[in-house]
Amino acid sequence: MPKGDKGPWGGGDNQGPWGRPSGGGGNNGGGDMPPSGPDIDEVLRKSAETFRRYMSGNNKKGDGGKGLLLVSIIVFLLWLSSGVYFVKADEQGVVLRFGEYHRTTASGVNYHLPYPVESVETPRVTAINRIEIGYRSSGSMRNSKSGDNSIPEESLMLTGDENIIDADFEVQWKISKAPDFLFNVRNPEETVKAVAESAMREVVGQKRIASVLAEGKLQVEQESKKLIQDTLDNYKAGIEVVSVNLLKADPPTQVIESFRDVQTARADLETSRNEAEAYRNDILPKARGQAQQMLQEAQGYKQEVIARAQGEAARFISVYDQFRQARDVTKKRMYLEAMEEILQGMNKVIVDGKNSSGVVPYLPLKELKPKTAGEAAQ
After folding, report:
1. Is 109 within 8 Å of 75 (Cβ atoms)?
2. Which of 104, 122, 149, 165 could form an S-S bond across to 91 if both were Cys, CB 3.0 to 4.6 Å?
3. Is 168 left (phi over 0), alpha (psi -120 to 50) or beta?
4. In Å, how far from its chain's centre is CA 16?
């Protein structure tokens, strides 16, 4: 290089790009000391000075192009360094190349090609988001609601038995797939709100009001959650429904007193019906038992009469057979049995005709007459 000419970096004779000697007499050429890296502060200072000279027009002849090259290099390096980005622990990096999804990065320090080649979105994928439907809370998540923050056009719903209820509920959701969440749905929060309100109305429209107000709340929440999740999956929204909480389910304020009267009447009806069922359950078994007892007694009497008749018939047949074999003996026996049956309860005087010859029989008829109670006492 001719004497007096400057190198490509604006230095003097035999100088390197960083203002150091480029010949063999320097530290790098002597071998006594190891080569040292560039002084960043010095480079930035000289670059700024060169840039000022160039912009002010005081630079020497030939320095303008070299200074512009140096500035361009610095700008290029700064442009490259702009691709460094940091993803937090609750976030996920979604890298776009010319506006199209390219890749997903985990938490920590990452790098992408600088803008406009690539850009990055970092949605919070672990954060739980809340959508309030039917009301707007002014404080904490579970604070009590009044008529001021109620939204009737969202909360009033028609049940399956054509009654109206005032239902306030919330939907908790989070991002499950960041690319789908960013590109498949234009307004995720409004989408979740619209889908949740539609699903709740559909589920409530299939239930009776008594079920929604009492024991059916949990079932309404579960069915609504499933329907919301299925709809969002069909949209490929990249959203996971964490829970659906039915905070309030009451009749409208304008008719709540009449509704309570109706509920009281229905409760009285159920009470009367239960009492009637209890009486029926008590009286029917007794009646059935008594009827069964009468049937059994009649059956027993039937068997008794039949057995007695059969016995008498068998006895008669037996006597008749004996009578046919010995008529005289049978007649006398029958006579004696008949007299025994007739005379066994009477006072009797037996006179043997064979041994009473010469004796005048005396029969005291008055004494044989039964005495009255007064005569017996005397």
Report:
1. no
2. 122
3. beta
4. 77
Return contacts of 216-223, CB within 8 angstroms, 24+ apart: 217/246, 217/249, 220/246, 220/249, 221/169, 221/245, 221/246
- The string of pLDDT tens digits covering residues 220-263 is 999 999 999 999 999 998 999 999 999 888 888 777 777 777 77
End-to-end C-alpha distance for the chain, whole angstroms: 187
Query: What letters, b where the CB count within 10 A reaches 16 and e where it falls short, cover 291-315?
Result: eeeeeeeeeeeeeeeeeeeeeeeee
Judge whether 189 and 129 are in contact, CB under 8 Å.
Answer: yes
In the block, residue with structure tokens 């920590």 = 108
CB-CB contact of 157 with 224 (8 Å) = no
**CA–CA dist 160, 208 (Å, integer):** 5
Who's near 239: CB < 8 A, 6+ residues apart? 173, 174, 175, 176, 181, 185, 188, 192, 232
Are 327 and 319 in contact, with CB atoms under 8 Å apart? no
The pTM assigned to this predicted structure is: 0.49
